[in-house]
Amino acid sequence: MRKITLLLCAILLLCTNINAQNRKGKIEITGDIKVSELVKKHIEFNDRLQTVKGYRILIASMSGANSRNQAFELKRQFKEKYPEVEVYISYIESNFKIKVGDFTSKLDAYVFMQKIKNVYPGTISVDNVYPIHLDTSNIIPETDDDADL
After folding, report:
1. Which member of 50, 65, 114, 120 has the greatest number of CB atoms within 10 A?
2. What span, in angstroms and rounded, lies between the C-alpha atoms of 133 and 50?
3. What's the first-to-final CA gap in the chain, in angstroms?
4. pTM score, two decimals?
């Protein structure tokens, strides 16, 4: 979410002309109305998005030539052993991180981490904020252009 907000701010700054009158201390901002509408929709979406603080367990972090394939293989193996636990893969600048679980308390994460630490040594519990799964069946796009977003 933070990257999207920064991207929208950058777009807003690039698409606007700032004209300042130094003597009167006033700033007039002019720009494309579509940028303002997009920012407004983004704010409305974030207001509707409900999140919960939780914990996940980082079972592996890898980089290198074959790290993508290794990450997805590790995900597959983990799901075979623990089908009831969700597995998440994130990619940030050449690092694949494999996190598991949607724990609402640190104690629950710790208990599960103790259960898997012999198979996955070096696991750590990490704080996360993740969205509550929303029912999107009642969201109707305003225009055809909105449906593509």
Report:
1. 120
2. 8
3. 15
4. 0.56
103 sits in the region (left: phi over 0; alpha: psi -120 to 50; else beta) called beta
Class of CATH domain 51-131:
alpha beta
Start and end residues for every CATH 3.30.70.1070 domain found in the chain = 51-131
82's tokens: 């623990």
pLDDT tens digits for 84-139?
Answer: 999 999 998 889 999 999 888 889 889 999 999 888 888 888 877 766 654 555 55
| Cα angle: 84, vertex 137, 37; to 5 degrees | 115
Q: How far is residue 16's CA from residue 38's CA, in Å, rounded to a whole number? A: 14
38, 8 contact by CB (below 8 A): yes
Residue for token pair 């998005």? 49
